[in-house]
Amino acid sequence: MLEVLDNLPHDLVYSPDQVSPWMEVWIEKVNGSSQVCEVYKPLQDPLVSRCSEIVGMNEENPSLREKLSFAAKGLVSKVFPKPRRAWLPTGCLKLLDTLHQTLPSMSLIASDFSYLPDVSIPGDRAPLVSSKKDGKTLDHPNYLDAQVCHFHFIHIAVTLQADNLFLLLE
Asked: Which pTM does this prediction carry?
């Protein structure tokens, strides 16, 4: 079950500096070629917005200390802008929402890994993107470099039949 949760889709969000609002990252083809690039758009996906609230990226009622910290970050970001990237586990959130709607009294126990290898892709909760060739694993420094894998979406359907739960991954 944990491997399923870990490998569900994540959404990437981006901010050009420490104080600008988060934006969704969309992948688009470059003028009909096989190359792709990132395009930044304002947050519009309700699942991405909700997930960013859950992980605490958009604090609604900041304390005085947080307000002072935010003001200091604003000054620093003008002099030393530092882009931010974060990967949000939106696929996991959608699955947990579906399970809760289908089985509201269900209990779930989950555990995280105690150790993961270093990740070279920048961003909070960044994925480890790798491919295998001739039995050797190659870690990629950029998720767009892994062109061996085509981008695809996983659709999750949950069906409840005769007290049994079936998950169908398409």
From this structure: 0.67
